[in-house]
Amino acid sequence: MNGAESLVHTLVNEGVNVCFTNPGTSEMHFVAALDRVQGMRCVLGLFEGVVTGAADGYYRVAGKPASTLLHLGPGLGNGLANLHNAKKANSGIVNIVGDHATYHIKYDAPLTSDIEGVARPMSHWVRKARTSMSVSADAAAAISVAREAPGKVATLILPADTAWGPAEQVVCAPTSAPRLPVSACAVTAAAKALSRGGPSGCLLLGDVGVRGRALELAGRIAAKTGCVISGEFNSARLERGAGRVHLMRVPYVIEHATKMFERTTQLVLAGAKSPVAFFAYPNNSSLLASPSCHVTQLDTIEEDIEGALEAVAGELGALNTPPACVAELSRPALPSGPITPEGVGALLGALLPENAIVVDESVTSGRGFGSATAGAPPHDWLSVMGGSIGFGLPCATGAAVAGPDRKVILLEGDGSGMYTVQALWTMVRNQLDVTILVFANRRYQILLGELAGVGLGEPGKNAYDMLTIGRPDLDWVSIAKGHGMEAGRAITLEELAREFKRGIASSGPYLIEVVM
Ligand SMILES: Cc1ncc(C[n+]2csc(CCOP(=O)(O)OP(=O)(O)O)c2C)c(N)n1
User: Fold this and answer.
1) How far apart are CA 438 and CA 361, in angstroms?
2) Spacing, Cα 292 to ligand 1 middle (Å)
3) How much is the pLDDT for 197?
């Protein structure tokens, strides 16, 4: 057994049995080990941003880490934007980054770089393997970190000689630390704040607080106290739809967000941070709650969010109160006519399949999709957590690998889609069940709004050219077909309904260019 084989054995034994890869020469022993050791599903991405974004999407659906294989500093560097998104989403990932053999570094060959320096800002944990004998223990430590709650990005650098040198043992990963219990005093403070606030109280939920039992408990607390319950602007995986407690979302537009908190005098944070504006704007505050609002931190993201909500509900006597804000099954009528964001929202509300995984990088086109789909059958909603675009296509790829029995619906801006368009090929090669709607408005629409938002008014010629992506218009049907994917175009809502049904009926990937 060599170091690379001991590494693959360690990963597979611990259930890290998917590897999103883009290898090079320094990773050849790892690649060969993937043939010699059984049990690893290998998924090739044609750009490292696809690899890291897929690992993020995988964790959000599977609830356990995947591994990645990346080629030295430049390969890792190409994957950093989506590792940033994964880190902000608390997605556990085990990155394996190849490096030159230890004795080769001093010659400064072309691919030599400070890999640890590249890795550190987007990783919670970085280690370079020292010898082939210790690679398995290093991998076990990385897995344990990645599995901690909330999930963490662990990066193990694997010099080529530690991959090809001898190894003797396969180490088990230490048990990851469980979530910390929340203090009784925080529970009492939160319960007091909410019982005092009535409708001017707000319980803001983040991380696992927007799922399962935690969500239901929030509904019970709302029913008992009359408080508002809300999710952060974005969630890594929000459970929603008919039969589930429906959360308001903090809006992106700062005026809307400050309006939402206008009347909040008691804000309780459960797995959430104090809400802040995405960006600073001249003459606007960074914080969204009013300065006089009293903020109580029930728990941090490392703590037992569900247990904390259970304790608050217990203290309020709300454990048996039927939850408030439960969404009823209600689908809008199928819309017709020209394509508008409202029409697309209604169409999604009308046709979204049960148990779908919706990956949302629709940017401005999707601002109304939340309310239009609130009464659709139960589904999960995955949003970008780090604000770095190019997340949607890779995340949908990883989500589909993790949930092969579920339909993935990707809502994608045309500008964002171009960052990691190579994911289309991975979806086809693996016949992933993803229906993609690309909103072809030929612009960076959000930035046109931002130009006005920072007080600069209408764009001149140079600014306009930097904020629009027409001339030439991207032909998404040809782009998809060039990656081997079936595709169609919709210029009316009737056509979109037909195309969407076609995507849903297919068991493989299908792309729809939605001309806006
Ligand atoms: C990595 C990265 N680069 C640039 C940006 C800045 N940015 C934010 S949104 C956006 C354009 C999004 O365009 P599109 O996906 O077409 O959505 P639209 O705004 O048209 O709705 C850009 C360039 C970013 N957030 N992340």
Assistant:
1) 10
2) 34
3) 81
Phi/psi region, residue 169 (left: phi>0; alpha: psi -120 to 50; beta: rest), is beta
Take atom 1 of ligand 1 and give the residue whose Cα is closest.
Answer: 388
Tokens of 101: 């053999």
From 411, 420, 516, select the one nearest 468 (Cα to Cα).
Answer: 516
Q: Give the DSSP per-residue string, 211-278.
A: SHHHHHHHHHHHHHH--EEEE-S--SSEEESTTSB--EE--SSHHHHHHHHTT-SEEEEES-PPPB-S
Contact call for residues 129 and 137 (beta carbons, < 8 A): no
420 lines ligand 1 (CB under 6 A): no
Ligand 1 center to 420 CA (angstroms): 12
Look at residue 471 in the predicted model and tell me its pLDDT.
95
Cis peptide before 150 (omega within 30 of 0): yes
Index of the ligand 1 atom closest to the CA of residue 81: 1
Low-confidence residues in the chain, pLDDT < 70: none
What pLDDT was estimated at residue 252?
86
Burial class (CB in 10 A: 0-12, 13-18, 19+), 462: exposed
SS3 279: coil
